[in-house]
Amino acid sequence: MITRKERAKQFMPFDAMKGLQEALRRQEEIFSRVEKHDVCEEQQVKISDTLTKLSKGMSIWLSYYRAFHDVETKGKVTKIDFAYRYMVVEDEMISFNDIYDIKIIEI
């Protein structure tokens, strides 16, 4: 008599080409990489003004550069350090130099 566990194994998904999906994801990530682009002086001033108004607990929208990709995110500022020029949004540490655009959504 076959146990339930042994019987369930026959219905498990079969991956004929182990590792193919992971290799494809890795290649897709490599091909989607971009170089960090420059921010014009006018935009830098706007970012700087917004950063001076920022405090812990505010909700923001943010466009920034991270690990060869342009990223957009929304979230609450959990930490801000003007001396070391970075902030933490949710659990992501973001350098001020990597910010393309920032908007305060909710105070």
If you had to describe this structure to a student in words, what would you say it looks like?
This protein is α+β, with helices and mostly antiparallel strands and 107 residues long. It has a domain at 41-106: SH3 type barrels, CATH 2.30.30. Helices cover 29% and strands 35% of the residues. The chain has helices at residues 4-9, 20-31, 41-53; strands at 59-66, 69-81, 86-89, 92-95, 99-106. Strands 4-3-2-1-5 form a five-stranded antiparallel beta sheet. The longest helix is centred in the middle third of the chain and has 13 residues, at 41-53. It is elongated, with a radius of gyration of 22 Å. The mean pLDDT is 91.
Question: Nutshell version of this structure?
Answer:
With 107 residues, this protein is an alpha+beta fold.
